[in-house]
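Hello forum,

I keep getting stuck at the same step: I have a sequence, I want structure tokens, and every attempt I make locally crashes halfway through. Rather than fight my setup again tonight, could one of you with a working pipeline run this one for me? It's a single chain of 166 residues.
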Amino acid sequence: MRKQLYDIECIFYDFDGVMTDNRVLIDQNGLEYVCVNRSDGYAIARLKELGYLQVIVSTETNPVVEKRAEKLKIPVIHGVDDKSEIIINYCEENGIDLNHTVFMGNDLNDLSAFQVVGFKAAPRDAEQEILDKADWISKKNGGDGAIRDLYRMLASKFGTKFFDVD
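Reply #2:
Ran it on my machine without issues. Output:
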């Protein structure tokens, strides 16, 4: 790890390729379906218990992004062109120091977010340009427990017990 983690206040996540495996299924009526990993949902719940704010920031406009955020009970900002601008505005509005933020992303449109956050995280199968700039790379692919892996890393970094219900 190239950077120290301290005083993390907020974790921002891309949706496709982080919460999903970046695939989409389309039925004969044009409805889209994605798969998410329940262990990531568990990790998000535990991170909330530890006091971390969490936000989904996605370029995707599919209602599935909003529905997943509702289920996880975290905010979502979607239909976004410039993720860095959204993150800066969110932090200003909520009194969060950008140095105390994490962004987990996987694709080239996440590079702008990487430029403004304090700590950059990526799933193992992220694009090479993202992996090259990441401070931490999960052992897991997007949609396969990468957020759970981030949770384990953060929890162990700060001495939090997380195997009680695992």
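The chain has one domain: 10-157. If your local run keeps crashing, start a new thread with the error log.
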